[in-house]
Design goal:
It holds the Pfam family Glyoxalase. With 320 residues, the protein is an alpha+beta fold. It has five helices and 16 strands. The protein has one domain: Roll (2,3-Dihydroxybiphenyl 1,2-Dioxygenase, domain 1). The protein has an eight-stranded mixed sheet.
C-alpha cells in the first residue's frame, strides 16, 4: 500500500460498572476523562474516553461500560494486553501506588530493551506500564493523584494474540508497520519512527483458545490517519486488496473505518481530526454528556437510560 499510519490512535475496551471505570482510570491511573458520550451504535450505554489534557491521538483508551456485561475471555483473535507509556525509573513508584490501592501487580519484567509492569483493571482488562529507555516526550495530564514525573504519557503498544503470524504480519505491513524485533514466539512491529505509541506486538500461540470479547477485553484497536482524504484513499486500497471494510463512519471527534486483520482482531483507522474540542472547550472536556446531532433529539430518553456518573473535580483543567 502507498499509505502508512504514524501510530496508534486509541484502544477501545469493554467494561462493566461505569462509575468504577471512571474512578479507576481518573484516580488510580491519573488520566483525564476527555469525553463523556454514548456508544453511537448503542446509545443506551456510555462511551468514555480517557487520555491526556486534550485527548490527543495516541493517548487514548476508551470504554463501552455495559453494567450487565458478562466477563470476556482473553485468547487468540484479540488484542490481549494494552500497554501505557511511563517515564524511565517510574515503575517502582507505580508498583507501590497500585499495590496501595489494592491492585494486584506483577513483577517488573524486561523485554525488548524496556521494563514493564503488568496488572489488571477492575474488570480484568490486562494492562501494562512500560518504560522506554529513550523516554517519551509527550506531556502527561496532571490531576494531582499521580506526580507528573511518573504520570502516563499515552499508549505504548498493544499485543495481538494469534494462532499463526504470517497473514497478520502481512496486514500490519499493509498498514505501514515494519518488523523491528523477534524473540521466540513474539514479534514487534513499529509504525513511523517507532517508539511509544507506535508499537504492536504479535504473540503467536497456536494452541490458545479463541478469545471472547466481553467485559475485561479489548473491543478494537485504532490506527491513525491524518485526515479524511487519506482515510478514503486508504479504504479504497484495502477494498482493492479484497479486505471487507465498513463505510466511513462519523464518530463526531474523528472519522472511522473498521475491518478485521486475518488473525481476528477488529481494527480501525481513525482520523486525527477534528478532535475532542469539536463540541466543548478544552477547560470543560468530559464534564457533560455530549451527543452527536443525530442523537440530540433523543437526549431525555438517553439520559434516563444512563446511570448517573460522579465525576471528580480532578478532571477539571483549572482546579483552583
Amino acid at each position: 500500500m502507498t499509505i502508512a499510519t504514524s501510530g496508534l490512535h486509541h484502544v477501545t475496551a469493554i467494561a462493566g460498572d461505569p462509575q468504577r471505570n471512571v474512578d479507576f482510570y481518573l484516580r488510580a491511573l491519573g488520566l483525564r476523562l476527555v469525553k463523556t458520550t454514548v456508544n453511537f451504535d448503542d446509545p443506551g450505554t456510555y462511551h468514555l474516553y480517557y487520555g491526556d489534557e486534550a485527548g490527543a491521538p495516541g493517548s487514548l483508551i476508551t470504554f463501552f461500560p455495559w453494567r450487565d456485561a458478562p466477563s470476556g475471555r482473553r485468547g487468540a483473535g484479540q488484542a490481549t494486553t494494552t500497554s501505557l507509556s511511563v517515564p524511565a525509573n517510574s515503575l517502582g513508584w507505580w508498583k507501590q501506588h497500585l499495590t496501595g490501592l489494592g491492585v494486584e501487580v506483577g513483577e517488573v519484567a524486561a523485554r525488548d530493551g524496556e521494563e514493564a509492569l503488568g496488572f489488571r483493571d477492575p474488570d480484568g482488562l490486562a494492562l501494562a506500564l512500560v518504560a522506554h529507555p529513550q523516554g517519551d516526550p509527550r506531556a502527561p495530564w496532571d490531576n494531582g493523584h499521580v506526580p507528573a514525573e511518573h504520570a502516563i504519557r499515552g499508549l505504548h503498544s498493544v499485543t495481538l494474540s494469534v494462532h499463526r503470524d504470517e497473514a497478520t504480519a502481512g496486514m500490519l505491513g499493509d498498514l505501514g508497520l515494519r518488523l523491528v524485533a523477534e524473540e521466540g514466539d513474539r514479534l514487534r512491529f513499529a509504525a513511523g519512527d517507532g517508539g511509544p505509541g507506535a508499537f504492536v506486538d504479535v504473540q503467536v500461540s497456536p494452541d490458545a483458545p479463541r478469545g471472547l470479547v466481553a467485559a475485561g477485553t479489548v473491543h478494537h484497536v485504532a490506527w491513525r490517519a491524518p485526515d479524511e482524504e487519506t482515510q478514503r484513499r486508504w479504504r479504497a486500497e484495502l477494498v482493492d486488496d479484497g479486505v471487507e471494510v465498513t463505510s466511513v463512519l462519523d464518530r463526531q471527534y474523528f472519522r472511522s473505518i473498521y475491518f478485521r486483520e486475518p488473525g481476528g482482531t477488529l481494527l480501525e483507522i481513525a482520523t486525527d481530526e477534528p478532535g475532542f474540542t469539536a463540541d466543548e472547550p478544552l477547560l470543560e472536556l468530559g464534564r457533560a454528556l455530549k451527543l452527536p446531532p443525530w442523537l440530540e433529539p433523543n437526549r431525555e430518553q438517553i439520559e434516563n437510560l444512563l446511570p448517573t456518573l460522579d465525576l471528580p473535580s480532578e478532571n477539571d483543567l483549572e482546579r483552583g
